[in-house]
User: What shape does this take?
Amino acid sequence: MKHEGGSCFKAKLAIRDTLDVVGGKWKLVLISVLFNGKKGFNELTRDAGISPRILSKELQELEINGLVTRQVMDTKPVTVQYELTEYSTTLHEVLFAMEKWGLQHREKVISNKV
Assistant: This one.
């Protein structure tokens, strides 16, 4: 995609903003796991394959950015459920595009090894 003048700066700024919110190894993985519905903390740890300490940090950042909600359940012991917000659906196209590219890339890498 070619940009003219100030639009190149705006494009770089927009990409940087996006990476600030969903960048890193885990945030998009967690969002994709939560697209299947509410999950408890331990479920997310298991399903995403992430340590509890890192999961806690990542969920907190996703919550600050309005992508995940946290609901403390009135149970004993206390449990917490995490769910995507309506706003998080704006990332659906991004995730789909990344999944599509990742599958194509994996095929390319595997076919080049043969």
User: Anything to note?
Assistant: The domain at 26-113 is CATH 1.10.10.10 (Arc Repressor Mutant, subunit A). Strands lie at 39-40, 68-73, 79-84. The two ends are 33 Å apart (CA to CA).
